[in-house]
Amino acid sequence: MTDRNRRLAAWCVALALAALSAACRRAPQPGDPLPGLSKAERARFDSGRVAFENVFTPGTGLGPLFNADGCAECHEEPVVGGAGDEIERHAAAFHATPPAGARACDELVALGGPVFQQRVTPALRAAVGIDSEPVPPEATAIAGRSSPDIFGFGLLDAVPDSEILARADPDDRDRDGISGRPNRFFDGRLGRFGRKAVVPTLREFNDGATVAEQGVTNPVVPDEGTFGGRPFPPGTDPTPEPELSREAIDLVDFFVRLLAPPAPQRLSREARQGRDAFASAGCDGCHVPVLHTGDSPIRALQHREVAAYTDLLLHDMGPELADICFANATPSEFRTEPLMGVRLMTRFLHDGRATTLEQAIELHNGEAARSRDRFRTLPAEERAALVAFLKTL
User: Fold this and answer.
1) 203-226, pLDDT tens digit by residue?
2) Per-residue pLDDT tens for 108-132?
3) Measured distance CA(220)–CA(241) in Å, rounded
């Protein structure tokens, strides 16, 4: 081989390696895992996707009460892990002045709450003649809950408590009108998952979802609860507990934990103008653009910047959006929704009532009223730019 041919061959190899490297560094697409996984972690992630897509039947543990027959039924658009079109039914009883020794919020757990499933197996229908779990008369509010996407949830789980608590300002000491406060689980731990920020860890969120949504027990949550406070009739739940193995629930958790958030798209001139308008309107007071993860046994989750656009705190959104209480969250308080991946969604807010981003902004109230009003006073061009920016996230 001549020197010229050697140089040409070396150039071709270098070009091929550069192309391969660029392909490896491509931005994560919806449904992709976090970059930087080992070969073993990627294989486990792929196995977890299969477990996540599993469809249950009454013979494999579904029900007797359920909302969906598998995880992917509620997290499917535009790919597995995305949002769903279902609207669940939750209920609770809130007492602004509770009796001595009682909590202000009763999640109605003893009566089947706070999630009241809307589907039943044929065996339960035959036994009691119903098509969904009835909400007890003790409820003071019934709430709709849309299914969010779960992209990037592992990164949210890895954000240290200290970073969340550092932004809390329950007494609004800085007088900016924003008084975000943390919610706490029933044992006092900091909550961060769920629309009311009750669940402390992603593991607990995933473990609880199989029972609450599919009626499928697992070794961590081996009890399906009750039907309106009563045991299920004999023969309506024939599958031995736990109905999901430890290995299967571990795989589901690993898949959810390592789902990457969709990378923000490149900003056009209009979107850059909208990013500035987002900040000037004060939207970033709650939708904090960047959070940081801490230590993690999984390298891909360690010390990462997350374009989360949330503070994971509770904020009062006003009486128009108020529905149920949950733990320390009052009916009008909701966790700031993460905006990563919002461009992929077609319904917005906790109950899916908004069908456009503009409508979602207009429905903000309470602590968000000042930012909403600033949005309203922007010139039409800047309002459009702000929405264009959100559609890059």
Assistant:
1) 999 999 999 999 999 999 999 888
2) 999 999 999 999 999 999 999 999 9
3) 11
- Residue, of 10 and 348, whose pLDDT is higher: 348
Helix (H, G, I), strand (E, B), or coil: what is residue 187? coil
Q: Which residues contact 180 (CB under 8 A, 6 or more apart)?
A: 167, 168, 169, 170, 286, 311, 313, 314, 315, 336, 367
Amino acid at 179: S
Task: Confirm if 318 and 189 have CB atoms less than 8 A apart.
Answer: no
Which uninterrupted H or E stretch holds 9?
helix 3-24
What residues does 143 pair with on adjacent strands?
A: 90
Q: Which residues contact 257 (CB under 8 A, 6 or more apart)?
A: 153, 154, 157, 202, 298, 301
Say whether 114 sits in a helix, a strand or coil: coil
What does residue 301 show for φ and ψ, rounded to 5 degrees? -100, -10
Domain chopping of the chain, boundaries: 43-149+201-257
State the Cα–Cα distance between residues 380 and 270, nearest whole angstrom: 12
Dihedral angle over CA of 167, 168, 174, 179, nearest 10: 130
Q: How far apart are CA 99 and CA 23, in angstroms?
A: 62
List 146's β-bridge partners, or say none: 87
| Residue of 192, 198, 83, 207 whose CA lies nearest to 147 | 83
Q: Which helix (H) or strand (E) holds 335?
A: strand 333-335
Provide CB contacts within 8 A for 218, sequence distance 6+.
Answer: 207, 210, 211, 242, 243, 244, 245, 246, 248, 249
Closest CA to 67 of 56, 59, 51, 83: 56
Distance (Å, whole) CA 362 – CA 358: 6
pTM for the whole structure: 0.92
